[in-house]
Amino acid sequence: MTRFIDVSTMSQLIETIGVDTFIADLADNIESDFIRWPEFDKSARVASHSDIGVIELMPVSDTHRYAFKYVNGHPRNTARGLHTVMAFGVLAEVETGYPILLSELTVATALRTAATSLMATRALARPDSRRMALIGNGAQSEFQALAFHKHLGIREIAAYDIDPGATAKLMRNLADYTDLSIRRVESIAEAVQGSDIVTTITADKTRATILTPDMIEPGMHINAVGGDCPGKTELHADVLRAGRVFVEYEPQTRIEGDVQQMPADFAVEQLWRVLAGETPGRRSRSEVTIFDSVGFALEDYSTLRYINEQAEKRNFGVKIELVPWVDDDPKDVFRHTRGRASSARIRRVA
Q1: What whole-number distance in Å separates Cα of residue 133 and Cα of residue 139?
Q2: How far, in whole angstroms, is CA 286 from its chain's centroid?
Q3: What 8-state DSSP symbol labels residue 208?
Q4: Is 25 a catalytic residue?
Q5: Which entry of 228, 258, 292, 300 is annotated as an active-site residue?
Q6: What is the mean pLDDT of the chain?
Q7: How far apart are CA 94 and CA 305, in angstroms?
Q8: Which residues in the chain belong to E strands, given as ranges?
Q9: pLDDT confidence tier of residue 340, bands split at 50, 70 and 90
């Protein structure tokens, strides 16, 4: 039987663990898997693009577990009352191919993206960073804000979005965090000025220049999170030239990240080597560091692994017959075309 985690169960799991703890745990799990980067069979995600969005499959495995995520990105969905990003994922045994977990990943991906930003930033930003600019205040913004506030000591956030309602939502959702100051600003330049960390999480599938060279100050760390597919960028090319650029899986980032606008020989650093101690992260207080984040399948592997461990530990979810059960003859699949064998059997986890 395969454990199934739906949206309501995921919500309960997050509430039980605590959203702050959940993000921190994910960051630690993702980092531990990045450190053993060479152990994984990796590939860029498989993407099906249209003029209005993208649907992707993201696979990765080591010798023990295989994982994939199905995820979309459709910026116009909000006008239709749908989420911009929706996802689900599977964790399976490599030895047998048996799926052990089928889980919602829309909510979990929001936390895992913030956790990845947290993981990269604590390796690259100045440790005494206290002020952050948050450009784009949509579905991902609360998670980024909480990750940096709770686990990196950010006390003030300058928030900007072209939609004032998005910023209002962010401020409303985080109103209980009285030790975090969120200030609405009228422009990107105003948000960035004086910030230690700048995070861009815009959604439009277009070549944009959210950050321009005149906005960059010595010692800044930039998380460019919104540029995550061909033809979609957030940083002016000269911003990339102003600092050291760190990436997840370089072959994928060259196609999807902000570095897609740069020559093929433009130098980038692999984040896993920093985490493993093979490459230095920040080299001085004045150095500008840039995390060109596109989202990589290993982060979802770590997330699914964590969800499965926590759900098993806490008896969350249901067991479903996602693949046919075997009684006497594992070669007899025809029996599942009739009678009792064809009916779905679902039971609550004991």
Answers
A1: 16
A2: 28
A3: E
A4: no
A5: 228
A6: 94
A7: 13
A8: 2-5, 41-42, 46-50, 53-61, 65-73, 87-93, 99-104, 131-135, 156-160, 181-184, 197-200, 207-211, 221-224, 233-235, 244-247, 269-270, 289-292, 318-320, 346-348
A9: low
